[in-house]
Amino acid sequence: MLRRGAATAFSGSPPSSVASDAPSAAVSTAAQSLLPPIQLYRRLFRAHRQGLNPEMRSLGDNYVKDEFRRHRAIDNPLQIVGFLSSWKMYLDTLELEAIDSSGGVGSSPSVGSAKRKCFEGRRLDPDMMEKLSEEQLYQLHELMQATQEVYDPNKAQAKPPGKK
């Protein structure tokens, strides 16, 4: 079960389960300092609010909620650490991109800012793909389909899900 104290027992390096070509050393190092689940959950939403456009924010917020609900009852400490470290690495990536796009540490893009860029993601490492279970591959495929339905880069005005 995900608990507040679950993150404090971790002292080794986190498993590499984030979809990226090669996470930077800064992101990997930062992921080693895990956050308690509730704090991580809140910071993910804050990062989505500050760094994603409305379409991707809607998709990302729903995905975060679903994943945290699915993993609420996990008791295995290794799974808890893997889950928390993966989400922490994603959070660190979002925060670093927000810093890069805003031009500094102290400034963050405003909600209506035209400077806000969309989180573009990264290709999944082929070695990582081979390690995924059938259920994880299916979930990844569903996520890919959902993102294609929500976000079309060719449209100037993509609409949030459920609105036509």
Automatic annotation (TrEMBL):
A GO cellular component annotation in the UniProt record: mitochondrial intermembrane space
Residues spanning the membrane: none
InterPro entries, sorted: SDHAF3/Sdh7
Location of the protein in the cell: Mitochondrion matrix
Gene Ontology BP annotations: mitochondrial respiratory chain complex II assembly; succinate metabolic process
Annotated Low complexity bias: 9-21
Location of region: Disordered: 1-21
Source organism, top-level taxon: Eukaryota
Record key words, sorted: Chaperone, Mitochondrion, Transit peptide
Signal peptide from the UniProt entry: none
Assembly notes: Interacts with the iron-sulfur protein subunit within the SDH catalytic dimer.
Annotated family: Belongs to the complex I LYR family. SDHAF3 subfamily.
Function, as annotated: Plays an essential role in the assembly of succinate dehydrogenase (SDH), an enzyme complex (also referred to as respiratory complex II) that is a component of both the tricarboxylic acid (TCA) cycle and the mitochondrial electron transport chain, and which couples the oxidation of succinate to fumarate with the reduction of ubiquinone (coenzyme Q) to ubiquinol. Promotes maturation of the iron-sulfur protein subunit of the SDH catalytic dimer, protecting it from the deleterious effects of oxidants. May act together with SDHAF1.
Protein name: Succinate dehydrogenase assembly factor 3
Species this protein is from: Tilletiaria anomala (strain ATCC 24038 / CBS 436.72 / UBC 951)
